[in-house]
Specification:
By secondary structure, the chain is an alpha+beta fold. 45% of the residues lie in helices and 13% in strands.
């Protein structure tokens, strides 16, 4: 039996579903006044005030232990909160990575001192992390990273470069995959993860402006950055295993279905009006919903595995690949629908939102692992290679 055969329909427990009410009330107060084309930037929307308010209400770090400032709840509670945040188009970009994967990674592999230093401020929405994986000459070949940290009498000396690092210019720390021994040809051997304070001397962060005019991607340079002896996260040399565990968190949640959801909801609201309703648009709405519904069910099933302490890397790759396909299809199909109509019929806010999502949609199949890499993982999970 392949790993994919173990995905079964899973229901969100009633206690966790009950979170939707207070979360929606919070979002109505803090998000709904924003226009749709702004809410569509949810992933990249940096708003530290929003993150702190979410932290005050206990909506961040829900799965983390209470001893470290978390909610002590299961993965379903966080799933409900994330689903609502993304559905409303909340500006989650500031706390997003720290709360989703950095803090859980530190909880799993960190020392007690690292846990107590880094996790509580993440739960309060006050500390932000970015991911240091991709490099200019490695692309999706993560095992080919060249950035290295070498031991010295003060700890570790870090040199190299990372790229496509989301919101690095707003973050306090990076968890970087680096070589602590060997060379890039050694592949998985000699890789470790280090926690880097981005305010240290020798760190340079340069935002990259994308097609939409936003600058949430960055390139980060390390020039003789001196790290403390305790900068290594987990055991030295176990970086590859740890990164694979981290990517399961990144690829399995509702964020792999909802990158275009604000646009979809804005278009659906238009289609429900007498002016916007056509036989073709109703058929398209049914087509898209029939794809989103089973993908959501798969995502919830993955969440069940995470709740049981499993690490479903192959299943997460499948959901991410399929979800990305639907996310990228939504702006294309909606554009086809709108541009078959009279030129002045569609609301301007809908068109602005469509314009933004169309521009950023190509990146959906890059972040979290490119399509080719994911399909290789899926093939191995199915026993095809």
């Amino acid at each position: 039996m392949s790993a994919l055969d173990s995905l079964t329909l899973t229901a969100i427990p009633a206690d966790d579903e009950a979170l939707r009410g207070p979360v929606r009330e919070f979002l109505r107060q803090h998000v709904t006044q924003l226009p749709a084309h702004v809410r569509a930037r949810s992933w990249g929307g940096y708003d530290s005030n929003f993150s702190r308010e979410a932290g005050k209400r206990g909506f961040l770090g829900l799965t983390l232990p209470k001893d470290y400032g978390g909610g002590g709840r299961n993965a379903f509670a966080r799933y409900v909160v994330v689903e609502e945040f993304l559905s409303f188009g909340a500006p989650v970009g500031s706390h997003w990575i720290a709360e989703r994967q950095s803090a859980p990674l530190i909880l799993k592999y960190g020392t007690e001192e690292q846990k107590r230093r880094y996790i509580p401020p993440v739960c309060r929405g006050e500390s932000y992390f970015c991911i240091g994986m991709s490099e200019p000459n490695a692309g999706s070949d993560l095992a080919g990273v060249r950035t290295h940290a070498r031991r010295n009498d003060q700890g570790w000396l870090l040199n190299g470069q990372k790229i496509w690092t989301t919101n690095a210019h707003h973050c306090h720390h990076m968890i970087a995959l680096v070589r602590t021994s060997g060379i890039s040809e050694d592949r998985h051997k000699g890789l470790s993860q280090v926690i880097v304070d981005l305010q240290l001397p020798g760190v340079t962060v340069r935002p990259i402006t994308d097609l939409s005019g936003d600058s949430h991607f960055c390139e980060v340079f390390f020039d003789n950055v001196q790290l403390a002896p305790d900068a290594v996260l987990g055991r030295e040399g176990d970086g590859w295993e740890q990164v694979m565990s981290e990517l399961a968190f990144e690829r399995s949640g509702p964020e792999r279905l909802f990158s275009s959801i604000v646009l979809f909801d804005e278009w659906l609201a238009f289609v429900r009006t007498p002016q916007g309703r056509t036989p073709e648009s109703l058929q398209l709405a049914g087509k898209l919903l029939s794809q989103l519904a089973p993908l959501r069910a798969m995502s919830i099933a993955l969440n069940g595995k995470l709740a049981r302490g499993e690490s479903p890397a192959v299943e997460a790759a499948l959901v991410k690949d399929l979800g990305t396909g639907v996310e990228q299809a939504i702006p294309t199909l909606i554009a086809d629908d709108l541009y078959r109509r009279p030129s002045q019929q569609a609301p301007i806010e809908l068109l602005l939102t469509l314009n933004y999502v169309t521009q950023v949609a190509p990146s959906f199949s890059l972040r979290g692992g490119t399509r080719d890499i994911l399909r290789g993982m899926i093939a191995r999970g199915l026993g095809l290679r």
